[in-house]
Design goal:
With 137 residues, this protein is mainly α. The protein has six helices and three strands; from the N terminus they run ααββαααβα. The protein is 45% helix and 8% strand. Strands 1-2-3 form a three-stranded antiparallel β-sheet. The chain is globular, with a radius of gyration of 17 Å. 15% of the residues are buried.
């Protein structure tokens, strides 16, 4: 399957770059920490656009995800700190406060839609829903 998709790889990377840059521009005023730009020497696939809520956010990450899902926007969680997974928590008696920075990142990070087929109108809808849920729209 993958070998037949390789000829489209450059197009997909370019499309995700444009979506990424639009998110960077349009979300800059929201209470979010946006991803750092990749170094100029790196070719980034931009397969996930992860943003973190800041302390100024009027809503927590799960509340924001719920608001987006109610608007039929498929944002998600792609990072859970290892010490919060049941296996490590139960086997080693780990608690959220044992790794506070990892816990905070785990509780505030979300991934926004970034598929190559995402239209300008769909991305604008994501941005409007984020702005509204974060009290800026």
């Amino acid at each position: 399957l993958g070998i037949h998709q390789l000829p489209r790889l450059e197009e997909w990377i370019e499309t995700r770059r444009l979506l990424w840059e639009r998110y960077d521009s349009e979300l800059a005023g929201l209470p979010l920490m946006l991803p750092d730009p990749p170094p100029a020497s790196m070719r980034h696939a931009r397969h996930l656009y992860q943003a973190r809520l800041t302390d100024e956010s009027p809503i927590d990450r799960d509340g924001l995800l719920d608001a987006l899902h109610k608007n039929r926007i498929g944002a998600g969680v792609h990072y859970r700190a290892a010490h919060l997974h049941p296996y490590y928590r139960d086997r080693y008696g780990l608690r959220p406060e044992d790794s506070p920075l990892a816990t905070e990142a785990s509780n505030t990070t979300m991934s926004l839609p970034l598929a190559g087929g995402l239209s300008d109108a769909e991305q604008a809808r994501v941005i409007r829903a984020l702005s509204s849920a974060l009290g800026r729209g």
